[in-house]
Structures are given as C-alpha cells and as structure tokens.
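Hey, I'm writing a tutorial for new members on how sequence and structure tokens pair up, and I'd like a real worked example in the thread rather than a made-up one. If someone can provide the structure for the chain below, I'll link this post from the tutorial.
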Amino acid sequence: MMRFTLLILMVILPCLAFSTTLNVKQDGTGDYTVIQTAIDAANPGDTVLVYPGRYFENLTIGTDNLTLMSLEGTTGDPAYIDTTIIDGNNINPCIIISQHTSDNTIRGFSITKGMRSLGNGGGLAIGLGSTTNLINCKVFQNQALTGGGIGISGADITLHGTSLYDNYALQLGGGMYASTGGSTYNITFDPVNRCSIYNNRAGSGQDIYIQHATSDLDVPLETFSVAEPSSYYATYISASPNNFNTYQINFDILHAHHQEIDSDLYVSTVGDDANDGLSPATALKTIHEAIYRVASDSLNQKTVHILPGVYSRTDNDQVFPIAMKSWVIVQGSGIDTTTVILEPHPSIPLSYGYWDIVFKATRVYNTTIAGMTFLSRNTDDSGLLLGNKLSTINLKDIHISEFYPDYSAVIRLSSSSERKTIWENVTIEDIIVPNRGLVNIDLPIFGSISNSTFRNSVSTYVSSSVGAHSLIGIVGDKSLEFDNCEFSNLTMYDDDSIAITVIGSQFPQQQDHFSFKNCLFSNNNSQGGVMNVASYNNPRIDITNCTFAGNQGDAYTLMVNGDVNITNSIFYNDTPYQIKVNPMDGNPNEHTNLTIDHSLLKDGIAGIMPYPVPGNTIDFLPSSINADPLFAGGFDIHDPLYYSLSEFSPCIDSGTEHTEELALPPYDLAGNWRVWNNRIDMGAFEYGSEPWVTIDDPVLPPIPETNLTTYPNPFSAFTNIKVSALNGSAIKHASVHSASITIYNVKGQKVKSIELDPHKAGEQITAWDGRDAEGVLCSSGVYIVNLMVNGRKLSGKKVTLFAAAQR
C-alpha cells in the first residue's frame, strides 16, 4: 500500500511542479509582451497574468484549465479591471474559447471593441462543449450578429461579478446570446458576487436572448436595464416546439439602470439621442432609441411620433432592425411625409437565416406601425417586418415598395391568434421575390385587413419538385375579414404554385370564418391556381361584392371548401374553371356547400369544377347570370378602374335587393357610395356613384352657400377648380383663418394640397395638373377634390384623371 501511494505522488508532483505563471507586460520586463503568445506557450493548469495596459488583440484560448487574469486576481483591487484592457479593435472577438476546452477562467479585464461579423459573440465567443468561468470583468462596446457582449454556443459558463453593458447585436441578444449549437449548455449567475446587465441594444432581446432552454434560469443581478423586464429586454425561448413559454427567467434585481418614460416621445431627422424626446423641439434622432425608452403599458398605449423627413443609416444614423415593444404605437406623420429607408449594417454582413429588416418583433403584443413609406437600398435581401414567437402587429397607412426579399418575405409573421390583428390602408407593390413572397403569416391570425393593396409583384421561384410560397400566404384563425382590398398583377413563375392562399388553422378544431367584401382580384397569373381559401372542419367562407377578372392560369381562379356563399360577385377570367371545389384530400368529414347568388359567373355552372362526393352541393341560383360583365375599360388594363362597370353592364342594379345582412362597408372599392340608385351592383365597383362622405370630414355648418366645381372632368392635362361663394361671404368669413384644396386618391391617401386665400371674397380659381406634392405625375384614376376650411371639409368633388402617358 505504501509503495502504491508513493507511485501516485510521483505522478502528481511533477504536474504540480510545472504549473507556472506566465507574466505579460507591455514594457518588456515580463515573460511576454503579447497575451496570445503567452496563451500559446501555456500548459493546462498555468496562469497567464496580464499587467495593466491596452492590448489590441483577438485572443483564442484552446488549452484546458487555463487562467487568464489581470492583477485584480492577485490583489483583489478592482482598479486593475479598468486599466487592463483587451481591445478587439473592431476586427474579431476579443476572446474566443475554442470548442471542447474545459475549466478555463477569465478574470479582471475590460473587454471591449470586439466584433463578430459572421457569428456569435463580439466580446467573448464561447465555443461548443467548453466550460468557462468569467469573473469580475467588464464587457462593453462590442458588436456581433448575435450576442454582442457574450455569445454561447452549446457551452457552459459561470458568471461572477461581471458587467455587460453598451453592447450591440444586429439580430439577437445585445448583451448575451445563447443557443444549443447542437449540444446542451448551462448558464450560472453567482448569487453573491452579482453581475450587472444593462443598456445593450439588439434587434431582439436587448440584454439577453436565450434559445432552446430546457429549464428555468435563475438570474440574480446587481443591476439590470429595468426593474421588471419584459421580453423586449430578456427573451427566453423554450426548447419545446409546441410551447415557447414552457420555461422562464427568474430575475432577482437589486437596481434598475433606467426608468422607462411614461409619455409619448418624438423622433426627428434633426433630433439628438441626448435629448429627452418629450417634444418635437427636443426630439430624439433614432427610432430605435425612442422605442427603447418609451414605457410599455397595455392600459394606456404610448406613441412614438416620427416627424416628417427621411430616416436611414446614411442620412441620420438610424439603427436597424428596430426592435418593437408591446403596446407601443410607432406613428409617422403620413405616407407622403415620413419615409424610412432600410440600409444594411456597414460592418456586420448577414449570414444564412438572417436578412436586413426594418422592424423586428419577438413576443410583441398589440403594437402598431402607422403613417410611413418604407423603401430599401443597397441590400440584396430586405424586408419590412419580422414578427415571431406569437407577436401581434397592427399596420395602418403604410406604403411598401423597392424591397428585395430573398431569404424571407417582405412581411413575415408568426402571429398570435389570442389578440386581434388589424391592417388598414396597407400598400405593397412593385416587388420581385425569389422565395417567400410578399406576405407570409405562418401562424394564425384573426382580425381584419381593409383598404389594402397588393399588386405589381412577381415570384421568380421555380422548382420541379416543390411549389413556391404564395405571394400572399396567410394562416387564419377563428374569423378573418378582407374588406375593400385589391390583389392585382401578381405573377407566379412556378407552374404548380398559387398566388394567394388563406388557410385555416387546424388546432384547435373549430369552424373558421373567412370573408371577402368589395375586393378586386385582377390580372393575376398563376398556373397552379390563382387563389385558395381553405380550412378543415367545414369553414364558412363568404365572398360578397368581389370582382375576379382578367386572371390567367391553367387551372382555376378560386378554390374553396366548406360552407361557401358567393353573393353579388363577378367571375370573368381566362382560366379553365372559375371556381374549384377543394377535394380536401378525400376527408369524409369535410363537405362543401357552394351557393352562388346574384353573381355573374363566366360559363355559368359549367365554370365550376365540382368534387362530386356525397354531402357536397352546388347551388347556382336563378338570380345569377352567365354573361359578359361589360367592364368600363378606357384605362390601362392593369388599372383597377378598368374593371369598373360601363353603362351597358348587366351587373348594374343586379345585386341582392336587401343588403343590410351583408355587413358591407358603406363605400365601394373606388371610395364611392356602396349602394347607389337604391340597388347594389355586382362586383367591387358601384356604377354612377359619388364619393362617400365620411364622418371624418364633416361639413362646416357656419359657412354656407359655397360651390366647388371642376372642369374639364375627366381631364388629362389639368383641371380647373373653382370655389364660388354665392353670397360673397363663404371664404371671406370672420371665422375663416385657413382654406385650401386638398386632393386624395380613392384609398384616402393625401396627394397634394393647394392653398387658397382665406380673406378673398367671392370666387377663386386654381388648377391641378395631375401631379402630387413632389411633382410626380399621378396614375390615371379617380381622385377626390375637397375644399378644406379651418382644417375641416366643406365640400368635395370627384375628378377622373386619364392616363399620364397621353400627356
């Protein structure tokens, strides 16, 4: 026994004897002047002791059981943390811990200006299968694609007394990011020698973003950004594929770095992020910073006001993606006055699975983006919005064009059916997509999409084995309404793909209800079928006063199943079948009852491709007709008004006698009264109707007897606009301090305003040359000319502008 003990000691003692300390001093009085050289020379169990100085290095530790520390580790003096600096010089990460290395310790450093342009971890990148202790360090001003301060890929890390602050990640986890990397990982925070994490920025998870979690995480901290963190600051995604919320972070925070501002904030192109943002005069500069500061309050939503101007990285240092926060409204000053231009990060390129986007929303509820135009430039893969992990995003009064989506869609959402989603006056147009389409909502939404336009776009994806994603692909749940929407000039190159799909959620089993009212589907080209509306459990599908016309393909225009009611609609397309009954894979529990009432269907009942199984019925009621709808024409065929009705159309006054139960909007697709001449027409346009006057534009009673006339009307070069005061007092009125002519398109978007003299009595004449406020020729169509007095509508007229090409 004694001899065996001696043998063990003889093996261990040499190892202990050769555990050494390698001193690094920049003045040359130590063993080394460069830290990496000392690390490369070290053996397991050694200590690399670094003396004060700023070391411009990008270190890699590939040895087990190595201690890298400053004099803080030998003296306990925290001053050495600030004076011993590892500076990555914005080239590579400051420190990389190689894969499968174990028991390494880093202590007492300032770790700054690291850069991980194509990966995870700007300050420290912790490699797969490694274990690391990080003690009493400051990690700040580092950048990365993910994990600006620390990136953890399937590794174990224990943190003691370390501060992560002022770091930036283009995508996920400004302070810290962790994922499995194909292996398990563990993160441990010292509850006694506490860490601090605050004031970091990212596309999602400003301070912490952790994926694939398999248990709760306890995070005792000295300081965090806010006292009560939301998912905006700390995102924790469970590994469970069916429930992202299985596990959570349990915070224990002693101090908050800042208090969110319980007030509206303002952003200006001439603002400054050093301002308080509480007024236009003290506006902030970046949209990202304003959302970061504003409070999230479900009972009293706050608004970030984006003042007129152009916002981009080049023009005013905007930060993209802009991280969204729950219950916050991001409100531009209008489509014509506020423009946001997406540009790529100058030094962090995208890697597979990521793309340039304007807004990113992770677990965001009931936020709104409104009143802006969005463009992109100098990027090969761009989109407006990525909302994932059950986010709910409302869109209002936005225009999107000049995007170049590659990996994803222009708008891609994994939405929440727990909260209603509302899109209103959204236009997406003039976009070529190679893969995902314009809109890709792959988790269910319910709510409404109204007064919106999706047009002039092409999917170039082609495959002999799989179909392309639809240009408009939406998973709906419960109830989803489409009112006064236009889907036109959408083209699919792939021969077995569908341009527009609205598919019901299967879980839980329920009867979904999808409705389409006053919608136009025109000039779409999709060989696999133009549109598919489908769900399991016999959905209810209502199509009312819609026009399907000019669509082309080798299959059908519309495929449906369930309890389908088509009322007051027009189907006149160059497809073998106008309507197809979806077989639903022969499921015996699914049945289709298709009723066509007061509608025009090319080829009549022969234009329907049935699926003749027991339980299916098709009722082509006598009120429906097979005829030429005799559209108005006269415009470019790609103009929606081409499909309005001519005076000879059999669709005029041919709709249902009673319309109350149809729950239609009060106006048609052109913005005119929906019911005219005491009877509704078939299709999306009402013949001979006049502009609908909204309660938003009330008539001014105190200023009587005015007359607004336009001539010529229609016009191609210009139209005169005459304001007559019959008694000479309408404009020259004591209460009048402003008067103007304001011109809108049929979507309600302001085109131009022309000022009048509020003090001039009698008659005033001005003119409109068909150009918008920027001097750009408007497209042909119907426009609304309103007389505005004191900011309110006094009277209005409809004018028709013929094609600009004639001028």
